[in-house]
Specification:
Elements lengths: L8 E4 L2 E4 L3 E2 L15 H13 L4 E3 L8 H10 L7 E6 L1 E3 L5 E3 L3 H15 L4 E7 L12 H12 L3 E7 L3 H8 L4 E5 L10 H9 L3 E2 L14 H10 L3 H12 L12 H9 L7 H8 L4
Parallel strand pairs: 3-4, 4-5, 5-8, 8-9, 9-10, 10-11
Antiparallel strand pairs: 1-2, 6-7
Length: 287
């Protein structure tokens, strides 16, 4: 594997987005449940992200639930013309903050309308079908679910379709039903199960959007990563994001934060250049 030339933008469906985006999940309360700790700061983070050039925001109506979508609407509506908001379906939240699968046609249809209502829009730009569980993809059936979303797409409620927490086989099966424009799976500098899938998607000009790009609820820890970061005068998390941008041109990043300081730190990762030698040194961490 060799370093690719980092480019600033990539296609998401028929839209072009900057590769450094923003994930809204952390704007909700603890455990992605309830309101934010600081409502005003949550709005400020969203507004500064867009003002700084972010035009790809990842969200879901089951974050909160409803919280992040309502914050996005409050902070950003009327939306900039170039802003692409990507949501996902496949779960709902219980009153006890539990995550409950919601995969029936009725569930998915209700989820689309919840997203539309809370975002205050008439059509969702991209909807990802979340398939696997918290530990990763499973090879369960997806045909009924993806066909339901394709029907909602035909009704004009969704513009583009994607997948989340899926295997390469499920991507192929879904693609036989409708065009897949993005795949969102767990991937970062140390969690490398999707190396082959990323390369396959790049050949097809399909975006790959790693969730937990910084390790998620267990932040990345690597002495090798820290050593490279020290040499580059950057933080380990910035270098981990820079490695992803250099890994493949179809990778779109959506690091999440509820902090203005961390938002600024994440965005600066796009300015880091990695030589081929440094990329190879970082690439070895996950092997």
């Amino acid at each position: 594997m060799t370093a690719t030339t980092a480019i600033d933008a990539f296609t998401l469906g028929d839209r072009t987005v900057n590769r450094m985006g923003y994930g809204a999940m952390q704007l909700a309360g603890p455990g992605v449940f309830g309101p934010p700790k600081d409502h005003a700061t949550a709005l400020a983070v969203l507004r500064e992200a867009v003002a700084s050039g972010v035009n790809h925001i990842d969200t879901s109506d089951f974050y909160g639930p409803h919280v992040t979508n309502q914050l996005i609407r409050e902070a950003l509506s009327p939306y900039p013309e170039d802003l692409v908001i990507v949501s996902k379906l496949g779960a709902v939240r219980g009153a006890d903050a539990s995550w409950i699968p919601a995969q029936t046609p009725a569930d998915l249809t209700a989820g689309v309308h919840d997203n539309l209502r809370n975002l205050g829009i008439e059509r969702l730009e991209v909807v990802n079908l979340r398939v696997g569980g918290i530990h990763g993809p499973n090879e369960g059936p997806i045909e009924e679910q993806f066909t339901t979303l394709a029907e909602l797409q035909h009704q004009g409620l969704i513009r583009h379709l994607g997948l989340s927490n899926v295997s390469a086989s499920q991507v192929e099966r879904a693609s036989a039903i409708a065009k897949v424009v993005c795949v969102q799976n767990n991937y970062n500098i140390v969690h490398r199960n999707d190396d082959a899938l990323i390369d396959m998607l790049a050949e097809k000009a399909i975006a790959y959007v790693p969730f937990f790009p910084l390790g998620g609820f267990s932040p990345l820890q690597s002495s090798a990563l820290s050593a490279v970061a020290a040499r580059l005068g950057a933080t380990p998390m910035q270098v981990a994001l820079a490695w992803l941008l250099h890994r493949s041109p179809n990778i779109l990043l959506i690091p999440g934060t509820s902090s203005l300081e961390h938002l600024r730190e994440n965005l600066k990762a796009a300015e880091i250049h990695l030589s081929a030698e440094v990329f190879a040194e970082l690439d070895a961490i996950g092997k």
